[in-house]
Write a structure and sequence with these properties.
Membrane topology: Multi-pass membrane protein
Protein name: Threonine/serine exporter family protein
Strand order of the largest sheet: 1-2-3
Number of helices: 9
Structural class: mainly alpha
Organism: Paenibacillus sophorae
Keywords: Cell membrane, Membrane, Transmembrane, Transmembrane helix
Family: Belongs to the ThrE exporter (TC 2.A.79) family.
Radius of gyration: 21 Å
Distance between the termini: 45 Å
Strand content: 5-15%
């Protein structure tokens, strides 16, 4: 769940509920965005698990929630729950990379219209946003540093938007840029940060908020660098 975009308080609640259903009502868990600590009792030494990769796949989060409910209601056994959890863990992402890129491209074009861009601005935004999202996916695999991947992708979006307008394809560079960067905006991170803070998970909320701020800063920096050179 933590690897696929769930809030930290939801992960803790799911773990303790499943432990209680298995006969460990005194279980305790402590979760941050990168670490899980869990113990079944106050006397047992806690076990630590490090989370190294994080992505967004809310379908897996929903499936684990369903397994937790079934286990708590005694509809499945512990062995069946373990088997289903293993299947969820081994399953591929709900949507292929190409489908994600196509969705990002469509979202970029639609956001351009929402932000009062014209139809002729939405057409280049389809291409720019799709290519920008594809560059993020590729660069994260290549560099393993999210900040630089997002900065480079936003710089590419800014440059392509400027070139399209200069070539006569589109009329407003700012509208194309705004629509194209929307698929990169960390909406889920911001939402989870606020929800964790409201639930009292201050460390998780602040760390996710800081990650969202760095992402927004990378996007703004990439666009700003390009515009400062071309203007």
């Amino acid at each position: 769940m933590l690897q696929n975009g769930a809030e930290t308080y939801r992960v803790e609640d799911t773990m303790t509920r499943m432990a209680a259903a298995l006969g460990f009502p005194g279980a305790h868990s402590y979760v941050t965005p990168t670490v899980i600590m869990f113990t079944t009792s106050r006397t047992e030494q806690p076990k630590l698990f490090r989370i190294e990769e994080r992505t967004t796949d809310l379908q897996k989060v929903a499936e684990v929630n369903d397994i937790s409910r079934c286990l708590s209601q005694r509809q499945i056994t512990s062995a069946q729950a373990r088997e289903r959890l293993a299947l969820v863990d081994d399953a591929a992402h709900a949507y292929s990379v190409w489908l994600q890129i196509m969705a990002a491209a469509l979202a970029g074009g639609c956001f351009t219209i929402i932000f009062k861009g014209s139809f002729w601005d939405a057409l280049p935004a389809l291409f720019v946003s799709g290519l920008g999202y594809a560059s993020v996916v590729y660069l994260q695999r290549l560099v393993q540093i999210k900040f630089f991947a997002e900065l480079t992708a936003s710089a590419l979006i800014g440059l392509l938007s400027f070139l399209f307008v200069q070539a006569g394809i589109g009329s407003e560079t700012d509208k194309i840029i705004i629509g194209s960067v929307m698929p990169l905006v960390p909406g889920l991170l911001i939402t989870n940060a606020v929800r964790d803070l409201m639930a009292g998970h201050l460390i998780s909320g602040l760390s996710k908020g800081a990650e969202a701020f760095l992402t927004a800063f990378a996007i703004g920096t990439g666009i700003g660098l390009v515009l400062s050179f071309v203007s």
